[in-house]
Amino acid sequence: MGEGGGRERKRERSVSFRFFHLIYHCAILPSNEEKRALLKKLTKSVSTFVLHGLDLHIYNHGYFVPNFLHSCCSLVPCSVRFWKQSSCRVMKRTSSVSLKIPPRPWICASDVRYAVHCVVFVGWIVAFEVGSGALPFFFHFFGSEPGDSTGAAVARDEFDPFERYGATITLLMYSLRLTSLLVLPQCICNMLGLLFFNGFRDKVILKASPLLAPFVCFRVVTKGLYPELVRDNIRKNLETCYEAGIENFIFEVVSDQPIHLTQGSRVREVNVPPSYNTKTGARFKARALQYCLENEVSILHEDDWVVHLDEETLLSVNVVYGILNFVTEGKHPFGQGVITYANHEVVNWLTTLSDSFRVADDMGKLRFTFSCFHKPLFGWKGSFVVTRAGDEQKVSFDHGMEGSIAEDCFFSMIAYRDGYTFDFVDGEMYEKSPFTYWDFLQQRKRWLQGIYLTVHSKHIPWKNKILLALSLYAWATMPFTTLQVFLCPLFPLPRWPITDALVAFIASVNLYMYVFGVLKSFSHKYRSNFLRLVMYLLAGIVTLPFNVLIENTAVVMGMYGQKDGFYIVKKDLSVLDV
C-alpha cells in the first residue's frame, strides 16, 4: 500500500482542491437564488470533501464545470458522491450527497411574454393593413371588395390623377409615396429581429468560468468635462464587475483633460497630449481612440478585448456575462448589444420616451443583421462596442475628417469592407437620454452628418454601404415624406395595391417599435402595476409628434449646416440650470 496508497491520497487531495475551486465559482456565477442557496447549504453540511475520481457532472446552464470535467450542457438532475476528509487522512466513505437541480421548464414566463408579443405584433400589422384600406387589393383579384359584391367600389377609385390634379401635384404625390419605401429594408429587418429572437429573457446565462475568459479592457473616452461623473461611474462599474466575478479586466479612461483617478491594477488613466496628431488628421473622439492604439500607449495584446463605453454608460451583471460569453467564444472579432435609457433616474421624459425607439431598433435590425448575417448592414452605434484588440488596431480610427463625426459608423463600414464579422452580445447597458431638447436635437444632427460623410466616402464600396445609404436617405427625406400626412387627404391617389400595402407595413412596424421600446425600457418600473404600464404606453404614443418634429428639424440643420463639428451633450445634472 506504500507507494500506490501515497499516490492515491495525493490524487484525492488534488481533486479535493479542485472541487473547492468548483464550489466557489459555482457560488459566484449567475443562477437561480434557490440553486445558489442549495450550493451554500451543501458547503455547510460537511466541512471538507474529496471527490472519488473526476466524474462530477453538473450539467446546468447556471453553473460552470471546469474543462477537466465537462462543459456546460443540458439541464438534468445530478448526483455527486463525497468522502469526508480529516487533515491528510481519508476517512471512511459516508453516504452520498445528492445535488438535485431541477430542469428548466419547457415554458417559462419569458417564453410566454415572447409568444404574446409575436401574436400581438403580427396581429397589429394585419389590423393596420386592413384599417388603412391597404389589404382590399386581395379582394380586387376576385373582382369585389368587402361589402361590395359587384366591384363598384374598385371602379369608384379608378380615375386619372393627371386630369384631376395636374402633372405637378400628381408627380409630387407619387414621389412622396415611393420615397417612403426607402426605409422598407430597415423595417423588414426590424420585424424579423423582433419576431425571430426572444427579447424578454431576464437573465444571461454564463457559459464558462470567468477565470477562462481573456483579458478585457473597458475603455471610456471623455473630454474630461465631467470628472465627478466619470469617477462615480467607474466606481459603480467596478462594483458590477466584482459582483459578476470577472477576473481579468481593467478600466481605461482616455481623456483630453486630467481626471485624476485613483489608479491601480483595475483602473488606468490615459491623457491625450494636445500635440498628438494622427496620420490622416482624425479629430475629436476618433483622435483619442486612435491614440490608445499607438504602440507606446497600448498595454493590450492582440488577443485581448476592448469594450467601448461612453462616460455615462453603466454596466449590468447581465451584460458582463454576455461580454464574457462573447469574448470566451471568440468566434467574431466585433460585437454589440442593447442600450436602454430608463433604468435609472429619468431627467427628461420626452427625450427618454423618444429614445425608446432606439431600444427596439437594437433588438430588431441590429440583432437580426448581426446574428444572421454577421455584418453591420446598417452600421452600429458608438457605445457598447466590443472589439478584439488586434483587429481594432488593424481597422483603426484614423480615417481623416470624414471618419471623425460618426467614428463608430465609419469604423464598422471599414471593418465590413475588410471582411471582418460581427455578432450580437447579450445583456443590456444603461445610459441616459439627453437632458435638454437642444442637446437631443444636436445629437441627432451630428449623427446625420456623420452617417452622410460615411455613406459618401470614396473609401467604402457601395456594395458595403447600400443599406446604410437607404437608411440615410430615408432619414434625410423625412421632411419630404412627412408631408403625406397633410397632403394625402387632400389629394388621394388611385389605389396602387402593392405600394399601399408596403407603406402601411412600414407605418405599422415603426409605430409598434415605439410601443415595444417603451415596454423594454420601463419593464423594471411596471412589473407589479398594470396601470403604470398603460400610462407609459400612452406617454410613448403622445411623444411621437415631438420625435417627428425633432427628427425633421435635425435633418434640415444637418443637411444644410457645416459637417465638421462634434457637439457634446450635457451628461452631468450639476451643470444644468434647474
Q: How would you describe this protein?
A:
InterPro entries: B_mannosylTrfase_Bre-3/Egh, Glyco_trans_2-like, Nucleotide-diphossugar_trans. Residues 305-519 form the Glycosyltransferase 2-like domain. By secondary structure, the protein is of the alpha/beta class. It has 3 domains: 2-90; 109-195 and 488-542, no CATH class; 200-435, Spore Coat Polysaccharide Biosynthesis Protein SpsA, Chain A. It has 23 helices and 10 strands. It has helices at 2-28, 33-45, 109-131, 137-140, 152-157, 161-165, 167-179, 184-196, 227-244, 284-292, 317-329, 349-354, 356-373, 389-395, 407-417, 437-455, 462-476, 478-481, 484-487, 497-521, 523-526, 530-542, 544-560, and strands at residues 49-51, 82-86, 89-90, 216-222, 249-255, 267-271, 305-309, 334-340, 385-388, 422-430. The strands form 2 sheets. Strands 6-5-4-7-9-8-10 form a 7-stranded mixed beta sheet, with helices on both faces. A 3-stranded antiparallel beta sheet has the order 1-2-3. Helix 9 links the parallel strand 4 (216-222) and strand 5 (249-255). Helix 1 packs antiparallel against helix 2 and helix 20 (497-521) crosses helix 22 (530-542). The radius of gyration is 28 Å and the shape is globular.
